[in-house]
From TrEMBL:
The gene is nnrD. Gene3D superfamilies: 3.40.1190.20, YjeF N-terminal domain (3.40.50.10260). This is Bifunctional NAD(P)H-hydrate repair enzyme. SUPFAM superfamilies: Ribokinase-like, YjeF N-terminal domain-like. It comes from Mesorhizobium retamae. In the N-terminal section; belongs to the NnrE/AIBP family. (6S)-NADPHX binds at residues 59-63, 123-129, 152, 254, 317, 380, 447.
Length: 508
């Protein structure tokens, strides 16, 4: 399955190119699309006695006319409700002509108890909020709890952003064409789509290759080629060394969670750098993880000078303030010297992000230097607003657009966390994660994620791919553990989700 996600504009280009190159013309693609929808209705709702098909004036409606005809030919009672009429000479007008049913105005729509609804009002062409008859239909269908099969997208959901314009249908199944769109994976769109089916309607993959941009669904094929594979004759330092900074005596747990996660992600050695007054408490809870006192910038400089650690995590439980800022800037500034020894990256999380709320520019400038180690920022929504207030305030940008803009501004890989985590690189590559589980919303979960990223970067995985892989592994571990999950469980669950990546080329 393709991992590229096409925006509605890219999909419109794909339609045009496909029509020009064949083998199907516009009405041919529409007939394929409508048939795919009818097949899903018949397969998913074999006992349906009545199907109510709602059609809009554009090509989404065209797909609906085709589906209505095929469903009626299959012997099901079909009623058709139209908002507007297709433009003369359009493919949708041909589909409407070929449909033997007479449409009633959507204004007169009544939801029939027990009916299945095909929503073919608006798809990729949604251009304004749902209102009037369409919004009324949403209310009636929702009140009667009718099962909805959405064509391309639930009407009202933006294919670009996943946002709801006005109101939107909640579908049991959504049938989209050729490949997924960002709005199918970003919330609330993902939730409103129900089960998502991607139907092949005869658009050649060469056409999709031509139009596809740099947005992907985050799955193992996106990064498996560069996932670390230890050589037979490797030793621990060749597997990378991750350094995790601990907070003071009462906030050390977060760093240990990160450290364990980095080790479980495959880093050959992991050290917790701890303030002197927290050494005892850290020592009491560490076994394979090493421990070293780092109290101030001089001791940090000594560590950096040795050039052992190739990836760092700074932030979990660290405390917000000058020390966090100074440490982060020192690591980013040491890049040139460290590069020889192999320093690859700094994962700045939690307090490490918040510490720069009043001076984000210092961080971004430090990360912009050519020799600086890669910077990975892992903000959840609140932290994102603190670091990128202007970008966060842009209502017209999707979560994907915001992550992309932030990555460019910060010269950093951004992991914009949430139930629909987006990962963006400064070069414009963006991935949307879709295997998340609500069980991951628990204290310490983010510390584990930061540790996995660092563990992978320490093994020389490129930072964007490391971030994508970490988000996927973290989510997969969370999904497998399920209810009752606490953050401590996540590192221990990693071997189970990593092993299949080595065994099967099709895992995930
Ligand atoms: N030949 C093609 O281009 C193909 C297109 N396909 C279908 O075509 C769809 C896209 O078609 P279109 O670009 O015609 O777009 P739509 O059919 O999604 O909507 C466009 C029409 O709806 C109106 N509209 C949009 N939002 C509205 C709102 N909130 N209230 C009232 N009116 C609104 C627009 O003014 C326009 O007339 C896809 O979603 C897919 O279902 C498929 O049939 C595959 C082939
Ligand atoms: K629709």
């Amino acid at each position: 399955m393709r991992l590229e996600l096409l925006t509605p504009a890219e999909m419109a280009d794909a339609d045009r190119l496909a029509i020009a190159e064949g083998p199907f013309d516009g009405i041919g693609l529409m007939r394929n699309a409508g048939r795919a929808v009818a097949d899903v209705v018949l397969e998913r709702f074999p006992a349906a006695a009545h199907v109510q098909v709602l059609v809009g004036p554009g090509n989404n409606g065209g797909d609906g006319y085709v589906a209505a005809r095929i469903l009626q030919e299959s012997g099901i009672a079909v009623s058709l409700w139209a908002s507007g009429t297709p433009r003369e000479g359009s493919d949708a007008a041909i589909a409407a002509e070929e449909c033997p049913l007479t449409a009633s105005p959507l204004a007169e729509f009544e939801a029939a108890a027990g009916a299945v609804v095909v929503d073919a009002l608006y798809g990729a062409g949604l251009s304004k909020p749902l209102s009037g008859d369409a919004a009324r239909a949403v209310t009636l269908i929702t009140e009667k709890k009718l099962k909805v099969v959405a064509v391309d997208l639930p009407s009202g959901v933006s294919g670009e952003s996943g946002k709801v314009l006005g109101s939107a249908f909640r579908a049991a199944v959504t049938v989209t064409f050729a490949c997924k769109k960002p709005g199918h994976l970003l919330l609330p769109g993902r939730d409103l789509c129900g089960d998502l089916i991607v139907a092949d309607i005869g658009i050649r993959s060469s056409v999709l290759d031509t139009v596809a941009g740099r947005i992907f669904e985050n799955k193992p094929p996106l990064w498996r080629d560069v996932f670390p594979k230890p050589a037979v004759d490797t030793h621990k330092y060749r597997r990378g060394h991750a350094g995790i900074f601990s907070g003071g005596p009462t906030t050390t747990g977060a760093a240990r969670l990160s450290a364990l996660a980095a080790a479980r992600a495959g880093a050959g050695a992991v050290t917790v750098f701890s303030p002197g007054n927290a050494l005892a408490v850290n020592a009491m809870h560490l076994t394979s993880i090493m421990l070293r006192k780092v109290d101030d910038i001089a001791e940090l400089a000594a560590v950096l000078g040795e050039g052992r650690s190739s990836a760092f995590v700074l932030g979990p439980g660290f405390g917000v303030g000058e020390k966090a800022r100074d440490f982060a800037l020192a690591i980013l500034a040491a890049g040139g010297r460290l590069a020889e020894a192999g320093a690859e990256g700094l994962v700045l999380d939690a307090d490490g992000i918040t510490a720069f709320r009043d001076a984000p520019q210092w961080l971004f400038e430090a990360a912009a230097r050519a020799e600086a180690p890669a910077l990975v920022l892992t903000p959840h929504e609140g932290e994102f607003v603190r670091l990128f207030p202007e970008i966060a305030g842009k209502e017209d940008l999707s979560k994907l657009g915001k992550a992309r803009a932030a990555a460019e501004a910060a010269h950093a890989v951004i992991i914009y966390k949430g139930a629909d985590t987006v990962i963006a690189a400064p070069d414009g590559r963006t991935a949307i994660n879709s295997n998340g589980a609500p069980w991951l919303a628990t204290a310490g979960s983010g510390d584990v994620l930061a540790g996995i990223v660092a563990g992978l970067i320490a093994q020389r995985m490129p930072p964007f791919e490391a971030a994508c892989a970490a988000v996927w592994l973290h989510a997969e571990a969370g999904s497998q553990l399920g209810p009752g999950l606490i953050a401590e469980d996540l590192p221990a669950a990693l071997p189970r989700v990593i092993k299949p990546l080595y065994l099967s080329p099709d895992a995930g």
